Amino acid sequence: MSKQESGAIAREIQTQILVLGGLAALMWITEFIDIFFFRGRLDAFGIRPHSFIGLRGIFLAPFLHGGLGHLIANTIPFLTLGWLVMLRETSDFFVVSIITMFVSGLGVWLTGSPYSIHVGASGVIFGYFGFLLLRGYFERSFAAILFSLVVGFLYGGMIWGVLPIQYGISWQGHLFGFIGGAIAARLLAKPKKRY
């Protein structure tokens, strides 16, 4: 590996750390501001299903959390799955994040209980999971399939989160986030080269 190539890899890793670390820091700063200055009232900016004003939550909800426990539970999978999305190309992370935010948020807005408020990054996290799991199916390359199998082995238990089995958890956000990840996997799939 040449010095130029190793320098490019080092810059890419630095960019990935800055992007993921910056977004995670933004979530933590927002939560601390919400706890200490607003006493949880910022959560009102989350997704409010069937309400026109609730549409603003589609892109705000992932940065809001229902307390430190909720934030801690989302931070580690956000960092790990987000980094796995970035592994091939950092730009994939931005595309997958935007698609899953939109699909997850809109799905919650359309199907959630009318008087509920949905917050948290879990819809986006399930989007990363769906993207990583289904990228191998859409690309059909050995490396992509192997990567999908490894992700399925390590994180396969997450799939139960798309079902309405736990009260107070936005399974709609998880389900539509996963669907958004699948859409992103299809859109970003690199066609197999034919010789």
UniProtKB/TrEMBL annotation:
Protein name as it appears in the record? Rhomboid family intramembrane serine protease
- What are this entry's molecular-function GO terms? serine-type endopeptidase activity
Query: Where is the chain membrane-spanning?
Result: 17-38, 58-86, 93-111, 117-134, 141-163, 169-189
Keyword GTP-binding in record: no
Q: Which GO terms describe its cellular component?
A: membrane
Q: Which organism is it from?
A: Chroococcidiopsis cubana SAG 39.79
One GO biological process this protein is involved in is:
proteolysis
Among its keywords, does the record have Cell membrane? no
Write down a Pfam family by its short name.
Answer: Rhomboid
User: Where would I find the Peptidase S54 rhomboid domain in this sequence?
Assistant: 58-189
Sorted alphabetically, the keyword list is: Hydrolase, Membrane, Protease, Transmembrane, Transmembrane helix
Q: What are the subcellular locations of this protein?
A: Membrane
User: What superkingdom does the record give?
Assistant: Bacteria
Q: How does it sit in the membrane?
A: Multi-pass membrane protein
